[in-house]
Amino acid sequence: MTPDVLSGIERVARRFPVFREHLAAFRALGSQVVHARVCTQKGFEMCAIAVVRFSGAIESGFGITRELLVFYSPHQDLQSRTFDAAIREMGDTKRSITPDTFFMWSPDQRLRTKLNDWSRAARLAIPLQIDEEDELSLITLLREYIYARDLFYLTTPVSGGSFFGRRTLLQSLREDVFNQRVTGLFGLRKSGKTSILMQLKEELAGDKVVTVLIDLEAFPSPPEDPTDDIVADLRRRLVAELKSHGLRVQELSQLPVRPTLMELRSALQTILKHLEKDGHRILLLLDEIEYLTPSDRIDIAEGDMPRVAQVLSVLRSIVQETSNFTFVLSGLTSAIVEGGRLYGRPNPLFSWARTVYVKPLAREEADDLASTVGGKMGIRIDPGALEALHEASGGHAFLYRSLASSVVTQLPTDDFERQMSRSAVLSQLAEWKSRVQGNIDEMVQHVKRYYATEAVMLELLIESPEDFAFLAPSEPTAVRRLADLGLIHEVDGHYEASVLLELI
């Protein structure tokens, strides 16, 4: 150890004598503390941190690939703000540490209960409570926490350490932002669209890009006019995001709470000119775009909702008149960029916005996701298991993770080297299929709700493949869209239902 490390260890040990016991426990397992210091965050100067590098055997057994942070607090009644301070230390340190797992110690008798309540999949806090007379108690602690979690089970969009794959797509979207291309990102429900948007926002945060994400599902849908609510919410969110970056908000703040579309446009253009001087950009993400084009309620080509088209026209004009603004549309239906007419007006996005579909995970991408996530739980996944996971789920992101989660819950937690085999996957298929029936039905019904022609073609393919083959040449757009959504695929010149439809 260097003199600086030894000096830091001594300072932390004087403040927290229990640190010496922890040092001995780490050393007994061939691991060592490589960094130690007192905290510098305002209000947390009495706390301390250490960074430990585990032995190769422990790293392999528990899927640990980086150093691990240990946070020490002197408080008898640990508060969540101290937990948040530990999270900030993970983000602020310049060392390459594990981003989603850390140890925490305090004299609080309820430490374990509190950490169990505050922890999440992307920020697991392990209470560093070990028996100094049992050299393996640290191993038992790691097994109890790392083996017990299920990182495959996710029901909400993810980003950061929980996001995997889609690197080519993300790079393409990133290039669109800096080249001011407007993109439409489309795919089935639970295909990962919102996660991609959230990950894009996170990755652009360090590039002077202020990103505003708006979920259009929360607004009224046509034939009820949602534009006033959308404009008001956009103004509010822009002000909040710009303020959080310490940037100019004057023109937007001076607007009424519910400004007109023209008032918002003028204020935003002024602010963009000021932001351009320092190289800042604004990116608008409009998610669940199908709620602006519900074809089952209104004629989206000639229906009486011109203000929806006007909003998109204004956004397009801002892109064309500035050098540091663009937007991304995301949702199920691509009709909003593919039709020449939109609510009685020329569609401002027709033949202008780039269309991208979020398709099922390719085998290589799915293998990487499973192996990486499994490794974080100390699980080695056999090639046969990887093949079975992909075959059964068709690579659909939600279904893939759902099946992997079902298998993980059945794996033993008392083995030092955990393994997922093909037989373990196959043994869970029947129960898993019955459990995801509702999810799959909801995905398909959502497609039918917004794509009338595609819904008919889909029914034909399921009930009478011969009739589908006969009509397919006369409905090329519908067939292409079903293929883009991953619901059908071409085999030897004819179309077949995807694995997702076979699960119904």
Report on this model:
- By secondary structure, the chain is an alpha/beta fold.
- The protein folds into four domains: 3-146; 166-357, Rossmann fold (3-Layer(aba) Sandwich); 363-432, Orthogonal Bundle (Helicase, Ruva Protein, domain 3); 451-502, no CATH class.
- 48% of the residues lie in helices and 16% in strands.
- The protein is built from 23 helices and 16 strands.
- The chain has a five-stranded mixed sheet with strand order 1-2-3-4-5, sandwiched between helices. A five-stranded parallel sheet has the order 7-8-9-6-12, with helices on both faces. Strands 10-11 form a two-stranded antiparallel ribbon.
- Helix 5 links the parallel strand 4 (97-105) and strand 5 (124-127).
- Helix 19 (437-450) packs across helix 20 (452-463) and helix 20 crosses helix 21.
- The chain is flat, with a radius of gyration of 26 Å.
- The termini are far apart.
- 39% of the residues are buried.
- The mean pLDDT is 89.
